[in-house]
């Protein structure tokens, strides 16, 4: 037998030939569901030589707990040796199989390696694991890379040398080689019970659940918005499962929380979810949105082929997907790009002015856009639209994370514009700006982007946001769909939903469920992606359709005049301490209210 890794001489259990397990510490082995049956079988059949294998302690996905026990090692290394005495039986050693010892392979990759070592092809592996051929090929490619080899034969040699065979084996054993761990697997299947240990009742097999991996902001000013995203996801998953799932398949939610300021952290989170063999991935916004950074973040999911839905509001992402459609055909942006915000600002002010609802003090507009070139909101197209409408815009740039609000306010005093647009996407920072601005009142109409959608904003602004306008390209509609969602959210979590993130994550889950329900096999990622490009879904944040070359949802009315295939570019006004939609028609819930 192999000597890798070094074995402990400490025996932690003895199993008698009659199947009695005597543990050094109570529950040390029997706590791991299913493993006891393998040990009793090994003792009963009197193995001639020691057998070593990996054991994944994860339960069947259909019965996965919502929060796994963090103190229990997931992958174990099991060694069973003959007791060497007349009474028979075996000695057992079980200990955690560290990631270093198993070359960083995940539980799913260990399963794939076992099937590779059994001589199976990628299509055979895909069939046994109920995944697409592309996913199976990706797993094989990744495990070869982790093992540092280029051939399946070399991977097989390492699996044998390092005891990486993993039990139980998925699928039947017909045609598989008679290796030590596989002989034990065959014995378990041929002798499932004994007089002293009756055969358990046959389990009713359930379809494999559909796994949705989700990445959320974990810290800083974005943590509260991350909670909104997660709650919206959980509400959608619970509702779908209560209705019987998708064609009888439950949905399981696999959340990961990361620092969204770190593109590599997001990339690693997506890599981890791919390693868990999830069926789809959802992500929120990322603060590293250059083309190269987005490409690196999306590539792990692109390699696996699983659909990735994100709401990064990124023109860079739309351009990347359009230009490299062969690579990123599985990546969908569920809201419009941030580049339409400036156009919406000009359109809204022009409509208010021309309708007589607002009487601007001048034709001067002041825009404080982000200094991040990958997140610009006031584009040359917005500048041209403003000038055509008779406005004179001035554009300056502010730090994306720590803006100097004192200087910003002084610049507003110097120019004395009719309206000011502030492109800053952190609720706490924007609230700080509003508090400073209100200390020395100005006639300028305040117009912000997205940040007030976070529920904490109004409290953080200390009631001083009254009368300000703000916009989002993905916001909760004020119709029956939106109101019913708000009521269910409040009932489920005891708190109010925000005006954007909770609804968009809720819609993303229902989008995936709608696509899966139209596929012959929801695990066929290519078919799922084709359906996602074809369907139209009406959610609580509007309508979704990814038929364009950049697979980015359209914005009404700035990119299309058809609201049935787009999300409305909603403009809200804070009135009496609440958010009311004032544009565009027909989605307004209140008229614009001039400020005193």
How large, in whole angstroms, is the Cα Rg? 29 Å
Class from secondary-structure proportions: alpha/beta
* Helical content (DSSP H or I, runs of 4+): 25-40%
Low-confidence segments, given as residue ranges, are: 1-9, 59-71, 193-204
What's the number of helices?
A: 18
User: What is the number of strand segments?
Assistant: 22
Strand content: 15-25%
Shape: elongated
Largest sheet: 7 strands, mixed
Mean pLDDT, to the nearest integer, reads: 88
Determine the N-to-C terminus distance.
Answer: 85 Å
Widest sheet, order of strands: 13-12-14-15-16-21-22
Could you describe the 3D structure shown?
- There is one protein chain.
- The protein is of the alpha/beta class and 596 residues long.
- It contains 18 helices and 22 strands.
- It is 36% helix and 18% strand.
- Helix 8 (263-275) runs parallel beside helix 9, helix 11 packs parallel to helix 12 (380-388) and helix 17 (501-517) packs across helix 18.
